[in-house]
Amino acid sequence: MTLFSELPLNTSPTVRDRYFAPPVLSPFADDMAHRLARLSIGPLLEISADTGVLTQAMASALSAGLTIIATDADAAMIEHASAKPGMARVTWQRADPHALPFPDATFGIVACHLGVATMPDRVRTFQEVRRVMKQGGRFVFNVLGTIQHNPVAECLQNTLDEFFPSDPPGYIAHGLHGYADNEAIDDDLTSAGFTDAIYTTVELPFAAPSAADVAAAYCLGTPLRSELEVQTIGDTEPILRAATLALQKRFGTGAITAPMRAHIISAAG
Is 117 helix (H, G, I), strand (E, B) or coil? Predict the structure, then answer.
């Protein structure tokens, strides 16, 4: 059982890796890494690598001859991720995805794992990606599906809506799951100069040891925590317990299993 009072007071990479990565980030990262292993043109650039969940999966799955450069705008994330096992083959560099510090036509593959949805300026990022891509290269990224196709996230958002009826936090529904629209993605890619995109829907099982772990995953292991701390004046314990009870009511008091959905986009041009 997760003891919320014993968790770190800040949204740290360790909390993210412990609670949010296993049920959500890792399954889709493993899936993407195996898809990227089919591409042969390099080198590969990862943007917004976060805690390095995809990076670690790629380091294991991709050909040893393929150069991998992983970037993030947050130095703390890079320090945390680069220290993980299996990262010796990866070159790490701090980089803002809106202004990539690389020459034109440098990379055969650019990858991003569940980071595009919450970027402040997606079109600008797409323009930068296209600029640093070689002719014939691919930009491969994924986004989570809507909360209607991700019942754990839907349950948590419903709890937030009930707990904060006048101003519910929007990170889950409008941030993390808010870019699951192929037409909107296509419009942004076209605005950035991409001419071709392939969309693939992936459904994988969500699995977590308990409702309390899931509540910690979303409420403490993602940027939702910042929203909650503002609205609760730093006392997140009541909403954590409300989320736990809601999850138990819907999924049971033991381990939680449910479907989850994401979309993979492979763009070129």
Answer: helix
